[in-house]
Amino acid sequence: MNPCHVCEKPTKNKCSNCNQVSYCSVQHQKQDWKTHKPSCHPFKIAHNEQLGRHLVATRTIKPYEIVLKEAPLVRGPAQISAPVCLGCLNGIEAEDHIECEQCGWPLCGPECKSLDEHKAECSLTKDRGQKVNVQEFGGPHPLYTCLSTVRCLLIGETSPEKASKFQELESLESTRRGSNQWKADLVSIGQFIPKFFKTQKFSEEEIMKAVGALQINGHEVPTTDPSHVAVFYTASFTENSCLPNLAKSFNKNGHCILWAPREIKKNAHLSICYSDAVWGTADRQRHLMQTKLFRCACERCVDVTELDTFYSAIKCEDRQCGGLMLPTKTDDWNGNWRCRECHKQVQKHYVERILERAGKDIQSMEKTVENGLKYLKHYEKWLPPQHFHISEIKILLVQLLAKDQKELMVIADDKLLLKLNYARELVELYEKLTPCEVRTLGTLCFELHSAIAEQTRRVALETSLSPKDRLEESLYYVEKCVNYLQYESDIFIEGHMLKQAKINRDALRMVIRI
């Protein structure tokens, strides 16, 4: 029995959404809803020594359920950024912008001049006594390196209600101090802000703590072009996992949406991937150590086979063997590698030469179907079919082999079959390995649905066989696409794909019913 949140009368009834607050009656629950709504989530913020603050599900979360919608505490330009409008954060051109009449910072138009986002650097620049004069627009500009930090430092003045929450966030200042990144940030931000803005408002420690909080808790938000960085309060308490249980989407306002592509059991810890889940383990570990200062020990990272996908493996140096090579130690991707069949060992530099060359060839390659197929043929000597470099090229080919419906209707049968097989293989791989990479999965499901539908059309023209089974398979994948992309805004390509997927889904349902 728990006390009713309104009258304190003992009751067994709890809010069905958060499972944390008790009410003795529906009337009292409705009465308290306005107060309770902002904190009514299917999780609680827990704490322990190892993880610090983290989120724990307070009930079973259903597939596709939204777990959290949250506006940012602060947002601003990425640390490496070309000049952007400091109102809307979209890119601007030398010949197509205005200057704020008070501070000189470039803006895309008068409507962005009064936006709250711009208040921090505008007031600090006015106090400087000299307007900013940005002349170069063609690439990363050093003045923009410090701007998001300035917004964090002045959050108490621009958004007092958010300041206390920002101060709660971890900066890992003691861990970062003395590292190469910290030293670079000290020069480009910590020492630059007082000198450029001619201010003594902030100590070096305050500035570097804000830099740390921004880097540790910042999310890349792709709702602007280029992407900007934003800090979210509650979302910052999600744990990292390279096999997470939450997908992350953004609405057109840049608000974060965390949702569950699969069921999450009660008491499970809620997680997102702080790195890029489609990378191999060595690259993810390196990125996490550089940017978040920790080594991941999630289920995927402690398994060198990456859930038996051998996503990072290479083929045995002995061509007669046919086995796959992986690190000899699960926690050391920089040591020797050993074949799982013949036990032959190679040093790390042998592996690095293969992977470095394979990666550079992808970067320099003109992205055509012919070149993609040549790449697969060449690197099949060293890399297994599900290796991350091979999978990257297969994703490219799935998208290049008939880029729209017109091309799909005339593509050769063998190329259509290739598109279909690669798409099916990739969906199976990434649903196992990266189940929360919803944009990738949604796109692949749409491509697979389209290929199956086109192949069915061709079969139906040539035979009298009923295509119903194949149409149902096409419907199955387009419904998956809709599920994966349902929270994608129409400002993204995936949002437009979602609209077309819904049209295709409804048409297929009608055809199958007939």
From TrEMBL:
PROSITE patterns: ZF_MYND_1, ZF_MYND_2. SUPFAM superfamilies: SET domain. GO terms for molecular function: zinc ion binding. Residues 4-40 form the MYND-type domain. InterPro entries: SET_dom_sf, SET_SmydA-8, Znf_MYND. Coiled coil: none annotated. The keyword Zinc applies. Keywords: Metal-binding, Zinc, Zinc-finger. GO terms for cellular component: cytoplasm. PANTHER family: GH11294P (PTHR46455:SF4), SET AND MYND DOMAIN CONTAINING, ARTHROPOD-SPECIFIC, MEMBER 4, ISOFORM A (PTHR46455). This is MYND-type domain-containing protein. It comes from Drosophila yakuba. The lineage of its organism: Eukaryota, Metazoa, Ecdysozoa, Arthropoda, Hexapoda.
